[in-house]
Automatic annotation (TrEMBL):
Pathway: Carbohydrate acid metabolism; D-glucarate degradation; 2,5-dioxopentanoate from D-glucarate: step 1/2. Residues 150-245 form the Mandelate racemase/muconate lactonizing enzyme C-terminal domain. It catalyses: D-glucarate = 5-dehydro-4-deoxy-D-glucarate + H2O. InterPro entries: DgoD-like, Enolase-like_C_sf, Enolase-like_N, Enolase_C-like, Mandelate_racemase_C, Mandelate_racemase_N_dom. It comes from Actinomadura rubrisoli. Its EC number is 4.2.1.40. It comes from the Bacteria. PANTHER family: D-GALACTONATE DEHYDRATASE-RELATED, GLUCARATE DEHYDRATASE. This is glucarate dehydratase.
Length: 411
């Protein structure tokens, strides 16, 4: 089996509402680049890549001629063809590699008639648990209300729990002053006794605020405190003084950083992202290292559509040491580009696709619809807030949104 062509199509799929985070916002939609890798046996493998609200089409078009004739089974050679570690000092192609690896695994699975999880050692679970993943947000075009106050947050979490069955709740923070977000977090704990909690301000708290927040939640049912401050050294300082497990998805995203965390522990839990790490296989390898050194693992979300969600599910299916619910932005989407529409949660879990390869196929009408929408709307800067022109955060940040002012987008 040989690669004969690569197609990349940028789509933008609406969210229920614009989602706020510490560095800016998802502007009411996700921009994703869908990758189709064609083989000489007529099969097509699927991949997906984000880009912070921007298209990655040009990058895939540039790499495509160099992969013509490559055997999708030869995944180690693929890694060096795309993301040679020395050449990557000049051009970091890790996420490009990930998307093409997804598609090659999809091709191999289809060719052999087996799911990707069988190529990775076989599944140990049939479904993967997910956290609710709560955001502060602007009102949505379809009537979704703002989320700014503790009461609004609890009401939203209650609705998601009723619809999807979540028993773990993650609050994406770093938007409002830490005192306000602490009030919101404790309101969640009070509203859902027995459920687990996690908080992620994306590294923008000062050391003092990170310590203060961590100490203030020690009595709650926390899974972990994720990236409260920037850097492994910052995490180590918080970990020394706070009785809550610490997690990261930002400063342990390759094996060099994982080794540093093994030698001097800063994070108790590593959130593995199939794009950030350069593919599913790299995440499986990293999980093995974590298992050896008793570091917890979870599955990270970087704003997925159904193709990348499938990679997250296959990863979650094969990890015996996956003891935390996965993250997903998925329930914030208004639609998807895969056949059958969005995957469904049952009891806070999503079933692992069991068809050949990744087990998902494109709905080409939806791809065309959302490719046209991308051409109409264009991209957006992930690191800017559409409701605060001219704003940008510092790290550590002190430029918080005002929680007393209702959230509203400019006309």
């Amino acid at each position: 089996m040989k690669i004969t062509g690569i197609r990349a199509t940028t789509v933008t799929v609406p969210l229920e509402a614009p989602l706020l985070h510490s560095n800016g916002a998802h502007w009411g939609r996700f921009v994703r680049t869908i990758v189709e890798v064609e083989a000489d046996n007529g099969l097509v493998g699927l991949g997906e890549m984000g880009g912070g609200g921007e298209s990655a089409e040009a990058a895939f078009q540039a790499i495509a001629p160099h992969l013509a004739g490559h055997d999708p089974f030869e995944l180690e050679a693929l890694r060096f063809k795309i993301a040679n570690p020395t050449a990557s000092l000049y051009n970091n192609r890790t996420q490009i590699l990930a998307a093409i690896e997804f598609a090659c695994l999809d091709l191999v699975g289809q060719h052999l008639g087996v799911p990707v999880y069988d190529l990775l050692g076989g599944r140990v679970r049939d479904s993967v648990p997910f956290a609710s993943y709560l955001f502060y947000r602007y009102p949505g075009a379809g009537g979704s209300p703002e989320i700014r106050t503790p009461d609004q947050l609890v009401e939203h979490a209650r609705a998601l729990k009723a619809e999807h069955g979540f028993t773990v709740h993650k609050l994406k923070g770093g938007v409002f002053p830490p005192g306000h977000e602490l009030e919101c977090y404790r309101a969640l704990a009070k509203a859902f006794p027995g459920d687990r909690l996690r908080y992620d301000p994306n590294s923008v708290l000062s050391l003092e605020e990170g310590l203060r927040f961590g100490k203030a939640i020690e009595d709650l049912d926390n899974d972990y405190l994720e990236d409260p401050v920037l850097g492994l050294e910052g995490l180590r300082l918080v970990r020394e003084r706070v009785g809550v497990p610490l997690a990261t998805n930002t400063v342990v995203v390759n094996f060099e950083q994982l080794a540093a965390n093994v030698l001097r522990r800063g994070a108790d839990v590593v959130l593995l992202d199939t794009t950030f790490w350069g593919g599913i296989r790299a995440c499986v390898k990293a999980a093995g290292v974590c298992e050896t050194f008793q570091i917890g693992v979870a599955v990270h979300s970087s704003g997925e559509l159904g193709i990348q969600l499938a990679t997250m599910l296959h990863l979650g299916a094969v990890l015996p040491n996956l003891t935390y619910a996965a993250d997903a932005h998925y329930h914030h989407l208004a639609d998807d580009v895969i056949e059958g529409g969005p995957m469904r949660y049952t009891g806070g879990r999503i079933a692992v696709p069991s068809g050949p390869g990744l087990g998902v196929r494109l709905d080409h009408d939806k791809v065309a619809e959302y490719a046209a929408l991308y051409k109409e709307l264009g991209g957006y800067p992930y690191d800017r807030d559409p409701g605060r022109p001219g704003w940008y955060p510092l790290v550590p940040n002190d430029r918080w949104a005002d929680p007393s002012v209702p959230l509203a987008l400019l006309p």
